[in-house]
Amino acid sequence: MGDAMIEESAAAPEAQVGQDVTITTVMKYMVNFLEHIDSLVSGMRADISSLRSEVSMLRDELRQRHQTNVDNQAVNEDDDEDEDDDDDPNKYIVSATPPARKLVIFYVNGFLTYIPRHPEAVILKNGLYEFMQFCLQNFVVAIWSSNMRHNMDRVLDKLHLFSDHFLFVWDQSKCKTEDKFTYCKDLNDVWNEFTDFNALNTLLVDNSLRKMIHNPINNYICPHPFDAASHSDDNALIMTQIYS
């Protein structure tokens, strides 16, 4: 049945901006991102295992040298322990294994929701709750918007079932201002504050390449935005749950 649905989807006309192509593209990228990082981590673990073997051999050699020095000199027990600590090469080895789950950071207006300029109503994408459940089960999720906080609060009120599970919710005040109209998002600010995450396990979803000037190219994706004109026909999130 799944294959038939995929073939039918392939035969359909090209999706309009804000419809299936938006979330489907993001989801495919997220899955590829997970597989790519898992492959990197597997290679890193093999490298670390080899490095630890070399460190173990080096430690044995250092201990032999240290024992020789002890035999030739009168060194008290406390000094022995200090010197042994200084010669231990393991203190220079740090873990290169990132957290099991990766961090995905979403922008709000144009991806998860549409925020009208004047009305108070916030329009949610079809299937948003199912999509957020999928993300929270597979990723660490955060929200970063270039909107002001009061606009963010309107969205969070709609997402109250999930807002307590977000790693952070950042607004315009966390962006870097390049000009009067462009608020850039620098992932280094995230990595400095949340040190479990880095370029190996973070994906930022945003609608503007101009906001990405501070970030490595492999750490962001910029899908087409969702707009009010297409929201009534948008079923991308629902279709994503079927395909996954």
TrEMBL record:
Domain of life: Eukaryota
One GO-annotated biological process of the protein: protein transport
Disordered: annotated span: 66-92
Annotated membrane topology: Single-pass membrane protein
Homology family: Belongs to the TIM50 family.
Task of the protein: Essential component of the TIM23 complex, a complex that mediates the translocation of transit peptide-containing proteins across the mitochondrial inner membrane.
Subunit record text: Component of the TIM23 complex.
Name of this protein: Mitochondrial import inner membrane translocase subunit TIM50
Gene source species: Hibiscus syriacus
Phylogenetic classification of the source organism: Eukaryota, Viridiplantae, Streptophyta, Embryophyta, Tracheophyta
